[in-house]
Amino acid sequence: MPENYAGHSRFSDPGPYAGLLAAAPADLAGASAVARNILLHYVGSQVALSPERLAEIDNRWVSRILATDQARHAYALDVPRPLADRVAGCCRDFTLLTVAILRAHGVPARSRIGFADYFEAGFHHDHVIAEVWDGDRWVRADPQLDPAGDWDFDPQDMPPFGTRFATAAQVWQGYRSGALDPARYGVSPTLPHLCGVWLIGMYVYLEAAHVMRDETLLWDGWGAMPSPEDGPGDVDGELLDRLADLLVAEKYDELGEWYRADERLRVPATVECHSPATGPRIDTLTPLS
């Protein structure tokens, strides 16, 4: 139900910065513009990041993202920030901040995890976009993209899933049916160890967690998630088949019952964070609200 996504999760909760979100634009275009004003992508931004700045990509909570921003810019979120002073993050953060702003205004919004084909020809990059309920349907948007850019689609009202952006569950089903080459799905074609079956499977777990309002970092691991050492035969295909089927069919009530009951799926109190900035560590998460 859309109303399940109208309130904050523990990840989107702004904490002491609720007033900043309340003062931000209440529409999708405005909220996305604020996210692009606050954040810079740690890859390809053409800003040299010190190790301390790079570690900002692990600001898993919206409250921490806003705390980092406000330490530099103690004013409204829509006041322009210099690119070099924005908070380092990734697609997940652009989406989560957009979702948080909309939820602050009672607008149902959620993050969706999958793969996009519009960054590099012939390759599908791991990516996170937003879904926003407009009263009649879920509108899909990529908050990271400037709508004024040279895109052959509208980043604020994207085509259906499975075209320019496919969910992780759709990609898993495509792999299982033999319809796609898993080597063309991952973080980068220059990083083959971060592509393929294990990563697609991992992202199905992440997609389920985000749909269940556990908007973890993309490098968090737990439960039965595959790892880079796993070959196709090491991945629990039957579990992922069921998980992907529920996600694609949008059977979220059934998924929720399974998610809450199965420790292989649900996000635990501690996760293995394999941060690209600081390396692997164990992170303790705040309790479920």
> Helical amount among residues, as a percent range?
25-40%
Counted beta strands? 10
Mean pLDDT: 96
Rg from alpha-carbon coordinates: 18 Å
Please identify the oligomeric state.
single chain
Total of DSSP H or I helical runs spanning 4+ residues: 9
Integer tally of domains: 1
Instruction: Describe the sheet with the most strands.
Output: 5 strands, mixed
Strand content: 15-25%
Order of helices and strands: HHEHHEHEEEEHEHEHHEE
List low-confidence stretches.
none
- Ends apart, CA distance between termini: 19 Å
Shape summary: globular
Q: Structural class from helices and strands?
A: alpha+beta
Describe this structure in words.
The chain is an alpha+beta fold and 289 residues long. The chain has one domain (2-284). The protein has helices at 18-23, 28-38, 51-54, 62-72, 91-104, 168-176, 197-211, 237-248, 252-261, and strands spanning 39-41, 87-89, 109-116, 124-133, 138-141, 165-167, 185-186, 220-221, 270-275, 279-284. The strands form three sheets. Strands 3, 4, 5, 6 and 7 form a five-stranded mixed β-sheet that branches. β3 and β4 form a beta hairpin. α7 packs across α8. The longest helix has 15 residues, at 197-211. It is globular, with a radius of gyration of 18 Å.
